[in-house]
Design goal:
The structure is a single chain. The protein is α/β, with parallel strands linked by helices. It is 39% helix and 20% strand. The chain contains 15 helices and 19 strands. The strands form five sheets. A seven-stranded mixed β-sheet has the order 14-15-16-13-12-17-18, with helices on both faces. Helix 2 packs across helix 8, helix 3 crosses helix 7 and helix 10 crosses helix 11. It starts with 16 loop residues before the first helix and ends with a strand. The structure holds NADPH dihydro-nicotinamide-adenine-dinucleotide phosphate (NDP). The site of NADPH dihydro-nicotinamide-adenine-dinucleotide phosphate has 33 residues, from helix 8 and helix 9.
Length: 515
């Protein structure tokens, strides 16, 4: 097979009349499909349950975008059974065939691009460009993993040895569990699902409760691409119930989790305990939160720094693991930079996501409550420069918020808020800035704005984050270009979208025949 070389899908910004009109049309057509019911999919069968998960529009929560069936323990057992039943067949598919199927899925997503974006606008409150970036990344993951998987099909090189025939080859692990967050409902879910199945594993997929419809769309795509029954099973349910059950299940071979540190810690602990009947060490992949910082020194291009800070802090309302939540500024240019950031933040428009504002709503009432409670903490810990309040409207609208005079040990400088709240910290010099930046338990993304070569090189070595950016925004890692994953309590650094990611879901077998 000769696939086109992988290149990231360009992200639509809707500047052209054609793209703008296509999106408007997609929004109308998707709205007409609101309220549909999506059953579980277990072993290719549609399964309904007495209870449902209702997914609403955070811009206007009285609107029901759709609903899914809600799995309990019995369905979780059935899904894991189905995944194991499907495993031997899928494992034995030639790699080219599996890769071709995923490339086909990417093509289907591409065909449905505007429609999928519209679902994300409604279900989780992304503005159009944020939704476009999410769908583009999902397409990227499918293509990148489809192509990357081909490089493992012939095994690994080993040295010749007299009198023996030696070989080492890769085999998949078995049936695993994918547990995903709501903030990249298509991209992250697609990536976490596509990677294990690309190399012959099978999965039970537990999407976040807030985004069961986006997950159902992924399953429509996979089904149309011809994925055999049971290779991926759609299992919405409560994380603390079915998610936790699947994590401790003796037949779960691996857990691919993206979400909060709190849940990640529980999963790590539970998965480490041997359940009765379990005959392997579960592999656990954890991609967790961040407390990401941008450093700006006195040599920096201040306008560029301010622009990138505002994009990194407030894109998708700050609900990205990579979002800037600390701005660390050296003394000399502090006032100038803060003024630039303030001016740009004041100009941001907040509103219903379908109107394509700069910021849409927060994802849920729970998110709104968390963010507002952190804003209260911030009032005690710093000086409120801007925002700090809920906005009018039935949606979960919160004004982009800036605090300064924040100490490095303040809670709002240490804990992940996951909302449109930026803390500004003043430091005397660049070296202190780097110390402050490293002074949290996380280590996901970070950025430096400077024109001093030796400072950039020092940061390259000492700024301890999985994804470091110089003189640009710190969000928007591209699949295959910036492998993504964090250090310290930001996770297990699996580097999604990186050249070695698929190895996580493979094990190497070495076979020797004596002649
Ligand atoms: P949560 O940790 O609350 O939830 C993530 C998933 O875990 C959901 O599907 C949830 O189900 C499920 N879950 C909840 N409790 C359990 C449990 N006890 N056992 C098993 N599964 C469980 O995170 P959010 O969805 O709120 O996502 C936001 C978080 O994700 C942020 O911290 C963010 O930084 C992080 N994130 C990290 C990324 C990275 O690459 N490092 C990327 C994107 C986000 P349910 O929906 O039913 O609660």
């Amino acid at each position: 097979m000769t696939p086109e070389p992988y290149r990231p899908e360009p992200v639509e910004t809707f500047q052209s009349h054609e793209a703008f009109e296509a999106m408007r049309k997609a929004l109308i057509e998707v709205r007409a499909q609101f309220g549909r019911h999506y059953p579980l999919i277990i072993g290719g069968e549609r399964v309904n349950t007495p209870e449902a998960i209702v997914s609403t529009n955070p811009s206007n929560p009285v609107e029901v975008v759709g609903q899914s069936a809600k799995a309990g323990i019995a369905e979780a057992d059935a899904a894991l059974d189905a995944a194991w039943r499907a495993f031997p067949g899928w494992r034995d598919w030639p790699q080219e065939h599996r890769s071709r199927l995923l490339l086909k899925a990417a093509q289907i997503m591409k065909r449905r691009q505007r429609e999928l974006e519209a679902w994300l606008v409604y279900e989780i409150g992304k503005n159009w460009t944020e939704a476009a970036a999410d769908v583009a990344e999902a397409i990227d993951f499918l293509r990148y993993y489809a192509i990357s998987a081909l490089k493992y099909k012939d095994g690994a090189p080993v040295l010749p040895y007299p009198g023996e025939d030696n070989e080492a080859f890769y085999i998949p692990l078995g049936a695993g569990v994918v547990i995903a967050p709501w903030n990249f409902p298509l991209a992250i879910l697609t990536g976490m699902t596509a990677a294990p199945i690309a190399v012959g594993n099978t999965v039970v997929v537990k999407p976040a409760e807030d985004t069961v419809v986006a997950a159902a769309k992924l399953f429509e795509v996979l089904e149309e691409a011809g994925l055999p029954p049971g290779v991926a099973n759609y299992l919405p349910g409560e994380g603390s119930e079915v998610g936790a059950y699947l994590v401790r299940h003796p037949r779960t071979r691996f857990i691919n989790f993206t979400g909060s540190l709190e849940v990640g810690l529980q999963i790590n602990e539970t998965a480490a305990r041997l359940s009765p009947g379990q005959v392997w060490f579960k592999r656990v992949f954890l991609e967790l939160g961040g407390k990401d910082a941008i450093i700006v020194d006195e040599t920096a291009d201040l306008k560029a720094a301010a622009q990138a800070t505002v994009q990194s802090a407030f894109g998708f309302q700050g609900q990205k693991c990579s979002a800037a939540s600390r701005l660390i500024v050296v003394d000399g240019i502090y006032d100038l930079l803060v003024e630039e950031v303030l001016g740009r933040t004041e100009a941001l428009i907040v509103g219903p996501a379908e109107e394509n504002p700069d910021l849409g709503p927060l994802a849920s009432q729970k998110q709104e409550e968390t963010v507002l409670s952190y804003i209260e903490v911030g009032r005690q810990e710093g000086r409120l420069l801007l925002g700090g309040r809920r906005l009018e409207g039935s949606g979960f609208f919160v004004a982009p918020t800036l605090f300064d005079r924040v100490s490095p040990d303040a809670r709002i400088a240490q804990e992940e808020i996951f909302g449109p709240v930026l803390s500004v910290l003043r430091v005397p010099d660049f070296d202190t800035a780097l110390e402050v930046a490293n002074n949290t338990r996380y280590g996901l993304t970070g950025g430096v704005f400077s024109r001093k070569r030796e400072r950039l090189e020092k940061a390259r070595r000492e700024f301890h984050v999985g994804n470091l950016y110089f003189n640009r925004k710190i969000t928007g890692a591209l699949v295959g270009v910036q492998p993504f994953g964090g250090f310290n309590l930001s996770g297990t650094d699996t580097k999604a979208g990186g050249p070695d990611y698929l190895l996580n879901f493979l094990q190497m077998k070495s076979v020797t025949e004596r002649f």
